[in-house]
Specification:
Elements (H helix, E strand, L loop, with lengths): L1 H11 L3 H5 L4 H20 L1 E2 L6 E2 L1 H12 L1 H16 L12 H4 L4 H19 L6 H26 L7 H37 L1
Antiparallel strand pairs: 1-2
Helix pairs in contact: 3-4, 3-5, 4-5, 4-7, 4-9, 5-7, 7-8, 8-9
Amino acid sequence: MKGHQVSIAQQRNVTFIDSVISRSRVSDVALVSTGVLITALAAQVSIPAFPVPFTLQTLAVLLIGATYGAARGAITMSVYALVGVLGAPVFTEGKGGLEVLLSARGGFIIGFIFAAALIGRMAELKWSSNFLKMTASFVLGSLAIYAVGIPVLAMLNPKLNSDLIAATVAMSPFFIWDAVKAVIAGALLPTAWVVVKKIKG
């Protein structure tokens, strides 16, 4: 009976990446390292804007969380933040250092950790194979990033004078951009599941 319960738990927590790569400590380290690199590269694809640049970073966070699962997704974003704090140029515009995390943009980086965990957990509950559920989870993940990022932005950006409403309004153009990314990401992963299932027969 106990073995049966373990089996059910393992099946429930299988994410897309687990269907492609056998799970081990080596693979986990490789995945986290790859996820950090992907997020760093996505951060460099940016368009200057106020109060923060438009980037592909959120898309990377969404896909990594959904692909890796809650624990590995959150760990990947935590390592990404740590590597950046230690000085590696992994943040937007090739920046690094503790000052970035403590700046008005820092809340969004912390929000990545919560978003990856949230989306990863929903993926473990089999949301990642359904377009509507996956898109919904990405919208919720984006909201998690904003829930941390916008209050920090309001407090630390001198042009916003700690005005939460003004910060939210300033970020409103990003809502459409992130909605588009949510739809794109929501379509990619269910499609990938279909391809893997066909390959495995």
